[in-house]
Design a protein that fits this description.
The complex is a heterodimer of chains A (234) and B (302).
Chain A: E1 10-19, E2 23-33, E3 38-42, H1 49-56, E4 64-69, E5 72-73, H2 82-86, E6 89-93, H3 104-113, H4 119-132, H5 148-160, E7 166-170, H6 178-193, E8 197-202, H7 205-211, E9 214-219, E10 222-227
Parallel strand pairs in A: 3-8, 3-9, 6-7, 7-8
Antiparallel strand pairs in A: 1-2, 1-4, 4-5, 9-10
Helix pairs in contact in A: 3-4, 3-5, 4-5, 5-6
Chain B: H1 2-17, H2 19-56, E1 59-63, H3 69-80, E2 85-91, H4 93-103, H5 108-117, E3 125-130, H6 136-142, E4 152-157, H7 161-203, H8 205-213, H9 218-258, H10 265-271, H11 273-299
Antiparallel strand pairs in B: 1-3, 1-4, 2-3
Helix pairs in contact in B: 1-9, 2-7, 2-9, 7-11, 9-10, 9-11, 10-11
Classes of the chains: A alpha/beta (234), B alpha+beta (302).
Chain lengths: 234, 302
């Protein structure tokens, strides 16, 4: 199903996620995110931010409720459909998840190789994406030869490779210093300006306050505030 | 097409990055296949040995001196009409005498005793061969036919039954031991393939996680492991063939002369190589693919 035809890019309705035996990571959450929005999801550790992110890229299934991502009903999605959903999403993690034995180019290309893209197309697309994240000269370097900020930019480049409509970034600045944090946030803003919906999961006060965008605040697995131009209030 | 080549590439990477584990897996598969090949060699040898001995079994019936040739011919016709009979050879008294003299040419006493007797002491003789060793009792019964029973002086059953039984017994024991050995190696092979795939999955866990994340299908993630399993089988068959073929080619002339060409390893392992090694590959591939599927089901989350 095409993501562009949907009014809401992301829609959660009465969603709960209970881990056995009786740990409620999310409780009765409802939210809507429109195409092209940049939304920060904030909250202290253990409030269900990462669980929410995992629901968005179908790593977890909700225990109750309905999760719709660009028309894909995650609560009813078949396992065989998950890869096709993920090709329409980009995911960025705090720990970058880069392959240390592959170069920057190979790390990004790997995402296309895994879905059967032809070699010529891979070469073209990877070069384009490397330019977007300002790493055009680093293609042949290995992750260990890059700074944390550069590694995260490689991870963002990989997330962008399928030209996704949604980027889910789970604590992307968690391991970075202030300068690199701003670089990554600016990059995410730039990506958002191109029309990509960005969901930024973070507990970094400065990042949230700098963005001046919508902020959803979680506490004990529940949404306690949802502000259009919010600030970090915990 | 790109996906196909990438699956081959990933499978090769799995194989090379876990080289020692891959080598151990292929080695145990080679041992299993060699055990199977040795069992085949033993089976061929045992069959040839049994056939060789069976060919030596016969019943001979000596007719009394003075029996008319027409009576003997009647007996021959009757015996040849029996389905249990493979062949009946008629020896005339003259032929038997000549044969006897040739056999005892070095023994002057025996030859002089023949001179004392004066006339040919032998009557007609029939040498009867059955289609199967199990048919000899029936042939012995047939020789009791009233029309010529009284004309037969002696029946001699060159009984190799004890030897046949012993050979059959030894062959069965060798087969049993071989199958046990084969079963042990097969079990070890299954366990090693399972473990190899498990370790490979562990080594590639980050890549697998990223492949899942970027939308690789389950089939694309699993396929390299299946290709690797097929490669294990192919290599094992290739190596075991490279070991067994020169051995059987070396042994072939010795066995062929000993068993009077009844056994030809060359015909089996070279003449029917596509069938023999093809079936071995199919068998090994089934074992490896089955073990891999089991390991993936247990350890690979896609």
């Amino acid at each position: 199903m095409s993501l562009t035809t949907m009014e809401d890019m992301i829609r959660l309705k009465n969603v709960s996620k209970i881990y056995s035996p009786n740990v409620a990571a999310l409780q009765n959450i409802s939210l809507h995110i429109k195409p092209g929005e940049l939304v920060s999801v904030v909250g202290q550790s253990g409030t269900g931010k990462t669980t929410l992110a995992k629901l968005l890229f179908a790593e977890e299934q909700p225990t109750q409720g309905e999760v719709i991502i660009g028309g894909w009903d995650i609560s009813r999605i078949k396992p065989a459909e998950v890869p096709y959903l993920r090709r329409q999403l980009g995911v960025v993690f705090q720990d970058y998840k880069l392959l240390s034995k592959k170069t920057v180019f190979e790390n990004i290309a790997f995402a296309l190789e895994a879905v059967g893209t032809g070699t010529r197309r891979i070469n073209e697309t990877v070069s384009q994406v490397l330019k977007i994240v300002n790493l055009a000269d680093c293609g042949q370097r290995y992750p260990c030869q890059l700074s944390g900020g550069e590694q995260q930019r490689v991870a963002i480049a990989r997330a962008l490779i399928h030209k996704p409509k949604i980027i889910v970034a789970d604590e992307p600045t968690g391991n970075l210093d202030t300068i690199n944090t701003h670089e990554i946030v600016n990059l995410l803003k730039k990506i958002n300006e191109f029309g990509t919906t960005v969901v930024l999961v973070t507990h970094n006060r400065d990042v949230v306050n700098h963005l001046h965008r919508r902020v959803i605040t979680l506490s004990d697995g529940q949404i306690i505030s949802d502000e259009e131009e919010g600030r970090y209030r915990l | 097409m790109s996906a196909f080549f990438r699956i081959i590439k990933f499978a090769s990477q799995h194989f090379i990055r876990n080289f020692w584990l891959s080598l151990a897996t292929v080695s145990i598969l080679v041992l299993t296949l060699l055990t199977l090949d040795i069992l085949l060699v033993l089976n061929l040898t045992a069959s040839a040995a049994l056939k060789n001995i069976e060919n030596r079994v016969d019943v001979s019936a000596s007719f009394k001196i003075g029996t008319e040739e027409s009576d003997v011919q009647n007996a021959v016709s009757y015996l040849r009409s029996l389905v249990e009979v493979k062949d009946v050879v008629l020896n005339t008294p003259e032929e038997i005498l000549t044969e006897f003299k040739t056999k005892h040419a070095d023994n002057a006493t025996i030859l002089s005793s023949l001179d004392e007797v004066g006339e040919n002491p032998f009557g007609y003789r029939l040498v009867i061969r059955a289609n199967s060793v199990d048919n000899y009792p029936l042939i012995l019964e047939a020789l009791d036919n009233p029309s010529f029973r009284d004309k037969i002086e002696a029946k001699n059953f060159s009984d190799h039954e004890a030897l046949l039984t012993k050979l059959s017994d030894v062959t069965n024991k060798i087969h049993l031991f071989g199958f046990l050995l084969f079963a042990i190696f097969l079990s070890i092979a299954v366990l090693i393939v399972l473990n190899t795939v498990r370790v490979t999955i562990f080594v590639h866990r980050e890549e697998i996680a990223i492949m899942r994340l970027v939308g690789a299908t389950g089939w694309f993630i699993r396929a390299p492991y299946l290709v690797e399993a097929a490669a294990f089988s192919f290599l094992a068959v290739l190596i075991s063939a490279a070991i067994i073929v020169p051995i059987v080619l070396t042994l072939d002339p010795f066995f062929a002369s000993y068993f009077e060409s009844a056994v030809r390893f060359k015909d089996f392992f070279i003449g029917q190589a596509p069938l023999v090694f093809g079936l071995e590959f199919v068998g090994a591939a089934l074992v490896c693919l089955g073990s891999t599927a089991l390991a993936m089901r247990k350890y690979l989350r896609v």
